[in-house]
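Fold this: CDP-diacylglycerol--glycerol-3-phosphate 3-phosphatidyltransferase
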Amino acid sequence: MTIPNLITIARLIMVPIVIVMILQGRWVAAFAVFVLAGLSDAVDGFIARQFNMRSEFGAHLDPIADKALLVSIYVTLAIVGSVPAWLAIVVVARDMMIVAAIMLSWVMSRPVEIKPLFISKLSTAAQICFAAFALAVKAFGADFEGFGDAAAVVVAALTVASAGAYLGGWLRHMAA
């Protein structure tokens, strides 16, 4: 068990904590835990690369932790009305499509290599920033006239582009 893996496990543990805080209306605490979870994603990757602590376990666990955090946060924020429901649906649908494609390729004995794409990293970063923004609005009353709507469209566009890139790669893999 490496330090990056322990950080990733800690991020997984933070998921239900931040969800409960949102549901209880404890916005400042929810914001703080979410930001800590988001930063932990960068820290575990940095440590793994810098100190040669990469592991197969971590390579699989890290994206699971990312998806658990983002899917949970978007669904919960949509339930309480802090992000548009349509945006939560886009975020969740992309991840469901990716998981379904991976499972189908395994079932068909055509396992696909799971590699993060640049557009998916950009999409994830935008999703994290937008969720942090939505939490900050509730926690601190911050609001930038019209910014939230424009940012939601950018997040959706990046998420759809990421889904399209993964789908295209998967279709090429399955047709080969």
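The CA atoms of residues 20 and 65 lie 17 Å apart. The radius of gyration is 17 Å.
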